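ATP-dependent 6-phosphofructokinase: structure, please.
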Amino acid sequence: IKKIGVLTSGGDAPGMNAAIRAAVRTGFYYNLEMYGIYRGYEGMIQNDIKKLNSLNITHILERGGTFLKSARSEEFKTTEGRKKAYTNLKNHGIDALIVIGGDGSLTGAHLFFQEYGIPAMGLPGTIDNDLSGTDSTIGFDTACNTAIEAIDKIRDTATSHDRLFFVEVMGRDAGFIAINAGIGSAAAAILIPENKTPIESLVEKLKSRTKAMKTSNIVIVAEGGKSGSAQEIADKVKKYLPYYDIKVTILGHLQRGGAPTSFDRLLASKLGVAAVEGLMQGKYDVMAGLINHKVVFTPIVKAIVDDKKVDEDDLRVANILST
Ligand code: F6P
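Here you go.
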């Protein structure tokens, strides 16, 4: 391997820049040429590819977002799109890829490897934490911290007015942010996509907490949950508790931004180094992750298909602490 292309794809995540920097610096350390592929697979198709030098990656470790930019490419899902992308890579002489992103992005890397044999290494870059083969994905810790900071502020005003807040957090089909932020902010209840919480049991819980003189309550709702959106749940609960002043806050994309935490910087740095060294050792079509502080390479198909389960013990802890 002589020339490695690096790209970020899908939803950006804090720590992606740190991962790019680590991969590129490691490439230079081993005298490889490193290429930035801009706007993910979209840029690969449109030939938005540039050779990187050390100045390109100076002072990016501490910045949120991704300086390579990101996109969700529909064209790459087609065989014609992937053919164009392959031709561009060949013209640049790029002989390996590092793809930083979530399950959709890693699926793309796997497909590309299957079709064209381009050695591909995935890095888990998503705030959702929904990839197997790593204890945490790059950006998850930062997103949880951001959510908790925001919920703490909501707590101040909720307490001042004795209000009930429904706070919607991100996580598409996964409840990891909701559970982490919910436990960390002493939420009254946490509703996640993996479980369906009957409205009646939520209402009973809120009633018993009100009796226990807990006049402000915060319920965390993961987007895409089976019980409905935060607004839908709030509307239903209002019918049972008409006397309660209820508000809804959707944290949204603020959870995707911001400087990465120390945890995410370390994770991204270790995985960036592992990505290049793994490729040099012939590890292809795998994702580098960190399990119990050790680098582990998991076949991409396993990382994306083996749905990581929310920790039952986390749910138990959340329940004990909110009863
Ligand atoms: O996958 C990361 C994520 O932030 C999800 O939590 C969320 O559902 C989705 O991306 C939002 O995507 P977009 O920014 O394209 O609206």
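Notes: The pocket of 6-O-phosphono-beta-D-fructofuranose is lined by residues 11, 102, 126-128, 170-172, 223, 256 (CB under 6 Å).
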